[in-house]
Amino acid sequence: MAKEAALLPCESANLTQSDVKIGAKDLVNKKWQHRWDITTSGRHFYGYKPQVMGKTFLDQPTPVAFKAICQLQTGYSCLNDYRKKVNQHPSNRCDCGEPETVEHYLFDCPLYDVPRQQLQLNLANRLGIWVMDVQILLEFDEDEYQKDWRETIVEELEKFILESNHFSKQ
């Protein structure tokens, strides 16, 4: 009988099933973060989401925008620069002649000048963002200032994506 009592958990510890779940989740997140920090794959997305913990706010009302934003963040997209790398397209060039990268699509391609100008104007008017960059448009950080802005940025980026009609062609 004394042996059985020794195997029982200490009553003063008050370790609950919830405590065990929280501890396991924390340990898994730490291991996941370590792997995410040291791995060489996924570096394009790592620039936008370096922390694995926490939920990413990503609430796009249309499936086309959701898919496009995920593709732009990860770099695995229907843009010709990526399609050429995976032998799905003969060239990495855009219809305008330049390499079709994420940055080219968002900031430089003359084919999307009109929707891009509207995006810039709307971000300037609504949030005071006068200079756009990839981090502003695609980073989903949990910083306080961005939480307030994120919904508006996603809304305006979605308009650009839909008006450019590039991702709906695929």
Give structural attributes:
170 residues, mainly alpha
Please outline what is shown here.
This protein has 170 residues and is an all-alpha fold. The chain has helices spanning 2-7, 17-38, 43-46, 63-74, 80-85, 102-108, 113-127, 134-138, 144-164. It has a domain at 63-164.
Give a description of the structure.
The protein has a domain at 63-164. It has 9 helices and no strands. The longest helix is centred in the first third of the chain and has 22 residues, at 17-38. The chain has 170 residues and is mostly helical. Helix content is 58%, strand content 0%. The protein has helices spanning 2-7, 17-38, 43-46, 63-74, 80-85, 102-108, 113-127, 134-138, 144-164.
